[in-house]
Amino acid sequence: MGKQEFEFFDPDLLAWEPEAGIEGLYAKILSQDPDSGSYSRLLKFLPGTDTSPAGVQRHDFWEELWLVEGAIYDLTLKQNFTAGMYACRPPGMPHGPWVSPGGAVTFEVRNYE
After folding, report:
1. Given this model, what pLDDT does residue 3 score?
2. Domain range for residue 87?
3. 16 near 28, Cβ under 8 Å?
4. What is the pLDDT of residue 104?
5. What pLDDT score was predicted for residue 63?
6. By C-alpha distance, which of 93, 71, 101, 95 is closest to 83?
7. pLDDT, average across residues 80-99
8. Is residue 103 within 8 Å of residue 82, measured between CB atoms?
9. Are residues 40 and 107 in contact, defined by beta-carbon separation less than 8 angstroms?
10. Contact of 47 with 101, CB cutoff 8 Å
11. 4 lies in a domain?
12. Residue 73 lies in a domain
């Protein structure tokens, strides 16, 4: 089936939903493929969000992220990532956990194909 076709729309019309049981982490699914599970979303870190309870992440899909605003600090790499930075992670690549003292928003594409 693939992702639905959308012309430009305002993502502010979509609700932020709590994500992964992490306090202060929220997501908006922008588009998704119900067959493959692939999707695009916005991920919001409220100021002070700490993803340590989820530990280091590894996925069975390709993941691309663009840091739209704010910053996240990777606790494993001991490195700060700021607005405008991009990541492309193949399946199995370890990453995180992060803290975001001032908050952040990322645009993320997950591809299971």
Report:
1. 73
2. 15-111
3. yes
4. 98
5. 96
6. 71
7. 97
8. no
9. yes
10. yes
11. no
12. yes
